[in-house]
Amino acid sequence: MLNRRDFLGRLALGCSMWLWPPLARAETHQARPRLVVVLLRGALDGLTALPCPGDPAYASLRGDLAAALHPTAPMLNDTFALHPALSFCHQRFLAGDMAAIHACGQAYRGRSHFSAQDCLENGTDHPGGSRTGWLNRAIGEQAHTQGISLTDDRPLMIRGPAPITSWVPSPTSDATRVLAARMSGLYRHDERLGPAFARALEMQRIVSDEVVGGTRLEDIMPAAGRFLAPAEGASVALIDDQGWDTHARQNAVLARKLADLDHGLSALHRQLGASWRHTAVVVMTEFGRTVRVNGSGGTDHGTASCVLLAGGAIRGGKVHGDWPGLARLRDNRDLVAARDIRSVLKGVLRDHLGLQRAALDTTVFPDSRTIAPFEGLIRAT
User: How many Cβ atoms are within 10 Å of 376's Cβ, its own excluded?
Assistant: First the structure.
C-alpha cells in the first residue's frame, strides 16, 4: 500500500510527463531505429577487407596480397581476420557491435560496374529491373520515416516517390577535389568512360599522395551522424564512395581506402553518441574481385565480396553465415557467392526497421519470394 509521500511523488511524476510531452516524445524518438547504407563503388576486394588466413588455399592463391596482410591482420575467428587498417572496426567487433558476412553476391553475375550497380540499387535480379530504388521503396513502406542522401548526385537507390532529402558539403578551398568527385558521379553512368575516369583519379591520388582537408568519408559520415542523432532527425541515410576498383597496386590503395572507411565509421560513432545504440550500418559493394593476383599487383572484376555491419543494433562479434571456401572457385577465378545480398538487406530491414516480409518480397525487392531474410543480424531488444 502506498503511503502519502509515495503517492504524492508518483502523482507529481505523472503530472510532469503530462505537462511536458516533448520530453516523453524525445525519449521515444531517441530509441527509434536508424539505418546508414554505405555503398563502396568500384568493387571492394572482400578477401583484403576480410581475409581468410584459416582457409588452406588462401596463402597460395593470394600470393603477395596475402603475405603483406597476414602478420598484422587481427584474427576474428579460426578462419577470418580483419584488415589492419580497420582498427576501429576491430574494436567494435570485440565490443560486440561490429559483424561481417562473407561471400555475398547478386543474381547478376556479369562483371560490368554499371550493370552490377544498377542491380544493387534497383533491388532486382537484372539491370533495368526497376526505375526506382529499393531504399526509396523501403522508406515508402514506413509512415513518417525521413531519409537523406549524402551523395554528389541522386543515385538510383533513392529515386522514387518517397521523399528523400539530398545534401552535399559546400565546396571548400579544395575545389578541385570536389569538382572531380562530382564529375566522377556523372561519368559513373557511362559503362566505358566511368571506370577509366575513376582509375585515372585513383592513380593521380597514389602518385601525388596528397589529400587536402579530410577525406570524403571522414567528411560525410559525421555529417550523416548529425542528421540522424537528433530526436526529430532523419532515420535513414545513404552514403557512397568512389575509388574501390583496384586493378593495380591493390595493397597500397586499399590500405588507404580502408583507413578512410574506418575513420569515417569512427566519426559516425562519435557523432551519433547515444543514438549509436539504435543504429545499423550496412557497408556493401557491387561485386567482388578475382581471388588470384594480376600482373599489376591488383585484382580484376569478380563475383562475391563481403558485407560489413556496424552499430549498436547489430548482433556483432562474429562473422555470420557459411563460408564456401577457396577450394572451388567460380570460373576458376572468383569467390563463390554463398548468399544473395538481398537476403542480408531483408534481414536488416525486417528486424531493425520492422518491414513486413510481404512488402520485402514484392515491393522493396520485387519477385524475391525465394530469398529469405538473413536471420540473427540484429540484436534482440
Answer: 14
Joined together, the cell numbers standing for residue 102 give 562473407
Q: How far apart are CA 19 and CA 229, in angstroms?
A: 25
pTM, two decimals, is 0.84
Integer Cα distance of 72 and 260 in angstroms:
18
Amino acid at position 343, single letter: S
What the block records as the C-alpha cell of 343 is 537476403
CB 50 within 8 A of CB 319: yes
Fold of 35-364: Alkaline Phosphatase, subunit A (3.40.720)
pLDDT tens string 105-162: 999 999 999 999 999 999 999 999 999 999 999 999 998 899 999 998 899 999 999 9
Q: Which residues pair with 37 in a beta bridge?
A: 238, 282
Residue with cell 545480398: 341
Across 192-208, average pLDDT: 54
> What one-character DSSP code corresponds to residue 322?
-
Among 307, 254, 350, which residue's Cα sits nearest to residue 120?
A: 307
